[in-house]
Amino acid sequence: MASLDATPSNLPKAEGDISDSFASLSGRPSQPLPNRFRELKLRLVQGHEDAVVASWKRLLAVLRKENNLVARMGPSIIPEVRFSHFDEDLKKAKGEIEKRGVAVIRGVIPEDEARAYKFEVEEYVRQNPQTRGFPQENPQVFELYWSPTQTRARTHPNLLTVQRALMTNFWHTSPTATTNPKPNSSSSSGGTPKSQSVSLHTSLAYADRLRIRQPGDAHFALGPHQDGGSVERWEEFGYGNRHLFPSGGHGVYDAVFRGEWDAPLSQSGQDGQRKGGGYDPFNATARASAVTDLYNGLGACSMFRMFQGWLAMSESGPGRGTLLVNPLVKETAVYALLRPFFRARRGLPEGEGSERGWGKGGFLEEENWEFTGGEKMTSDLQGAVPGCGQEFPEGLHPHLELERTMVHVPEVRPGDYVVWHCDTIHAVDRKHNGTGDSSVLYIPVCPTTKGNAEYAARQRDAFLRGTPGPDFPGGEGESRHIGRATDEYVQKHCTPAGVQTLALEELPVTQNDTVNGKAAVAEANQILGFS
Fold first, then answer.
1. pLDDT tens, position by position, 163-193
2. Where is this region: Disordered (predicted)?
3. Segment (H or E) for 149
4. Which residues of 186-221 are buried (b: 16+ CB within 10 A; e: fewer)?
């Protein structure tokens, strides 16, 4: 797509709500993808076909074993960390968090304070009855971004401490990665393109929505999905980073398409990219350059969120309108990427196992799945719709066995912070069967990069106007809301570090940051107009 050096996510967006982000919620019909996706798939695995087939077989063996473990352990498989013993607990849980891609961090905000957040938000909505939400007749997810409550929560000192620890303990960059000397220049316009610098010590705020889900609700029945785009995960100008590296070979998922997803990780080269080696879910250098919204989707995130997250404002738990995750971040992401290259030779008959010796077990066996290379290749990318999140409809990704491997996060109390890796497959309870509301503020973890700083500059303008952030449905938003947060409010009620994350003041250079990280902060400050 030659036109993709323009940035669709910079364009104004229509009004809407969270349902517009997902084909399943909006009722958008599934349409066959055009032939260019078939050609794309052929290019992705060209010369590596045999290796991809072999890697698929290894992957299925791993999934069989891990799925059984996940199903047996349920919510207890989710690592937990106490904020009161943060450093100690985080160190102990590090390996499990890396494997699972999700964690519950207890007591980040004092419980009474977090519980009060919900009552403040409800009063804000009462004062502003024009507030939009989904579903319209009984909102559960509100189109709110700039309430005083959200602004204070996302800049809370405890939360910023946790975000920095999550970035520095789990993600890594190459110390040799550099940025373009001119922030506003196109990195593919000539000369040798450079990978993006990333600061893991300095976070930027991302203004997202909030949820107050009432008992009995079944409208916000969002099934298994990944955020951060859908078809972009395969596209060369999306996660493939061809806008920076026209010759290819520097995409987020290159190792997967070479059939080397499980190979040992190798050392970074001089351009900041890992040469060869397996797929690394925590390589920030590659992720920082990916374009995750090529189609200007309503709510399609264009900012690099290392971890997505929400802060609880109420008690909640399994079956009570809460989050479900598949706690196997690497293997499930790889399966989603490889699934479009394979198809079943023999389908699963109605009434599972109605034929002697044949049923779900035989259907999932590796011998029943063939590689669709060459003339057999199709344009299919199961669950991917341009402009929407990547979904996992029932039956399209059978080896993930999502009916038994999507597990609830454990019981939470107000002030607990739940985080999950940006590749994690997640969902919400189809029905809230509890007796009290399930309420959260969506607050992800975002490092400082060139792309994130560019987004933060546009988000700052939206904040000052009171309109939704650039990723979200447009319209007047909260521009006429009584009592919304303003620059004056932030300066009075937030710490200096919190004000900085909102791009309202110059970002600090942390002395223990890498040369790469310091370069990222310097470039971000230039983009934000502070130098």
1. 999 999 999 986 554 444 444 444 333 333 4
2. 1-30, 173-200
3. helix 148-154
4. ebeeeeebbbbbbbbbbbbbbbbbbbbbbeebebbe
**H or E stretch covering 69:** helix 49-73
Distance (Å, whole) CA 203 – CA 180: 20
Is residue 100 domain-resident? yes
How many angstroms separate the CA atoms of 47 and 34, rounded? Answer: 23
Confidence class for position 474, pLDDT limits 50, 70, 90: confident
* H or E segment and range at residue 309: strand 307-312
Tokens of 469: 């952030």
Q: What mean pLDDT comes out for the span 441-470? A: 97
Beta strands in 184-275, from DSSP E residues, in sequence order: 198-203, 210-213, 225-226
Neighbour tally for 427: CB within 10 Å: 19
Give 442's contacts (C-beta < 8 A, 6+ positions apart).
208, 209, 210, 211, 308, 309, 310
Task: Please tell me the distance from the alpha carbon of residue 118 to that of residue 72, in angstroms, as a whole number.
Answer: 35
pLDDT at 14: 62
Phi-psi region of 111 (alpha: psi -120 to 50; beta: other; left: phi over 0): alpha
Distance CA 307, CA 167 (A): 9
pLDDT band at 18 (very low <50, low <70, confident <90, very high): low
Task: Determine what percent of the chain is predicted with pLDDT higher than 90.
Answer: 75
Write down the pLDDT at residue 51.
98
Q: What is the CATH number of the domain that holds 325?
A: 2.60.120.330
The pLDDT of residue 464: 98
180 in any annotated domain: no
In a domain, 191, yes or no: no
Can you tell me the distance from the alpha carbon of 371 to that of 340, in angstroms, rounded to the nearest whole number? 9
Structure tokens at 254: 């290159």
CA separation for the pair 333, 225 (Å, rounded): 11
Q: Distance between CA 285 and CA 304 in Å, rounded?
A: 11
What distance in Å separates the CA atoms of residue 433 and residue 67, rounded to the nearest whole number? 26
Whole-angstrom Cα distance, residue 49 to residue 371?
8
- Position 297 scores a pLDDT of 75
94-98, 359-363, 507-511: segment of lowest average pLDDT:
359-363
Rounded-to-integer distance, Cα 115 and Cα 415, Å: 7
For residue 264, what are the domain limits? 2-170+198-527
Distance, CA of 525 to CA of 450 (rounded, Å) = 10
Decide: helix, strand or coil at residue 347.
coil
**Number of independent structural domains in the chain:** 1
User: How far is the C-alpha of 301 from the C-alpha of 289, rounded, in Å?
Assistant: 14
Which DSSP state fits 316? B
Residues 475-502: what's their mean pLDDT?
A: 97
| CA–CA distance, 198 with 515 (Å, rounded to integer) | 10
The first and second tokens of residue 435, run together, are 């007796």
Parallel/antiparallel/unpaired status of strands 102-106 and 80-82: parallel
Is the pTM value of this prediction over 0.85?
yes
Paired with 438 in beta bridges are 213
Whether the CB-CB separation of 43 and 35 falls below 8 Å is answered with no
Which helix (H) or strand (E) segment holds residue 39: the answer is helix 35-45
